[in-house]
Design brief:
It contains 10 helices and 14 strands. By secondary structure, it is α/β, with parallel strands linked by helices. The protein has a 7-stranded parallel sheet with strand order 3-2-1-4-5-6-11, sandwiched between helices. It has a 3-stranded mixed sheet with strand order 12-9-14.
Length: 339
């Protein structure tokens, strides 16, 4: 296996939320990166000067092949994709096209150009979300929406390719990623984001009149959905560790990325209110209880045994208040004008 010391890692979606944090983690650890991103939701400014950047699609076989050859890449971290659950319910074909067909085209270019390691952004949305216990990697795979299905289909494709070729693959199933880089270098950018913590931060900053709570009649302690929120910088660190792991030891590995404890929508909003009160002297947000949102699972909490044991992964930001504070600082920065 080639050492990655002098081979930059190709990051698809490296101008986006999670991809940009993984890129920063690589750079902070003395590694090199090359980014390809179509800027549909990403931000050019998230990629520092000095990191080669290509605006383009993962389905553009010629472009991807050329980047891999020119930079001598041997590893890919694949983040590019469509990620909004409710949007996937409305526009399923876009999700299968971007996420499944796009990944297939990317993999063709990888196999044809000597890529040896591949880390894939998957999701907790591949699980059925029906149980109230933390779900392990062997949990029931029954996605509740087209987004989750598009990710699971890509996982299956990767498993078959890993079995048939020398490509080594890590599939990371993210739970609910939140927060922003502690130094303020990146964060969740897409203005129309629907994610709970980002939306709550925008609300306390006065960008929305109120926060809608989507359903309070679930089988959960307070009736609202439970999720396992993980800080994006801890997640980025897991990518580095798993890249080394598949280089040295494993041919194919699937890992949950979460902390192993769930918070309800109400608990999250309470923490955002508290943090915003302390940081900005903000008033608590107005809340409105509404109907369930299509495609939402009641509860998704990670069993984190595998990642902790295999990667010896020791998260640093397992604290909802830290996630809320970094997300809020980032949102404020966006409001004040970034570039
Ligand atoms: N929610 C609200 N009001 C809002 C926004 C969200 O009540 O304005 C609720 C949702 O209904 C859900 C919870 O907050 O119960 C979390 O919703 P998000 O939209 O923040 O995140 P999702 O759980 O839908 O999805 C996210 C990622 C997926 C990932 C999944 C894994 O977008 O990529 O977490 O748990 F698969």
């Amino acid at each position: 296996m080639t050492s990655l010391a002098h081979h930059p890692v190709l990051i698809t979606g490296g101008a986006g939320y999670i991809g940009s944090h993984a890129m920063l983690a690589l750079l902070d650890n003395g590694r090199e990166a090359v980014v390809v991103d179509d800027l549909s939701t990403g931000r050019r400014g998230a990629v520092p000067a000095g990191v080669p950047f290509y605006e383009g699609k993962i389905a553009d076989n010629a472009l991807i092949g050329r980047i891999i050859r020119e930079h001598g890449c041997r590893a890919v971290m694949h983040f590019a994709g469509s990620i909004v659950v409710p949007e996937s319910v409305e526009k399923p074909l876009e999700y299968y096209q971007n996420n499944v067909a796009g990944s297939a085209a990317l993999l063709r270019a990888c196999l044809d150009n000597g890529i040896e390691r591949f880390v894939f952004s998957s999701t907790a949305a591949v699980y059925d979300g029906a149980g109230d216990k933390p779900v392990s990697e062997d949990g029931v795979l029954a996605p509740a929406n087209p987004y989750g299905r598009s990710k699971l289909m890509t996982e299956w494709m990767l498993r078959d390719i890993a079995a048939a070729t020398d490509l080594r693959v890590a599939v990371l199933r993210y739970f609910n990623v939140a927060g922003a880089d502690g130094a303020g270098r990146s964060g969740q950018y897409a203005k129309a984001a629907t994610h709970l913590i980002k939306r709550a931060c925008q609300t306390v900053l006065g960008q929305h009149p109120r926060m809608d709570i989507f359903g309070d009649d679930y089988h959960t302690p307070d009736g609202t959905c439970m999720r396992d929120y993980i800080h994006v910088s801890d997640l980025a660190q897991a990518h580095l560790a798993v890249l080394d792991h598949i280089g040295e030891r494993a041919e194919y590995v699937t890992m949950n990325c979460g902390y192993g404890h769930g918070y309800s929508v109400t608990q999250v909003l309470d923490v955002v209110d508290q943090v915003a009160g302390e940081m900005l002297d903000a008033e608590p947000m107005r809340r409105r209880h509404g109907p369930r949102r299509a495609g939402d699972a009641a509860s998704l909490v990670a069993d984190t045994g595998r990642i902790r044991q295999i990667l010896n992964w020791q998260p640093k930001y397992d604290d909802l208040a830290v996630m809320a504070a970094t997300a809020l600082a980032w949102e404020k920065k966006l409001m004040d004008g970034l570039d």
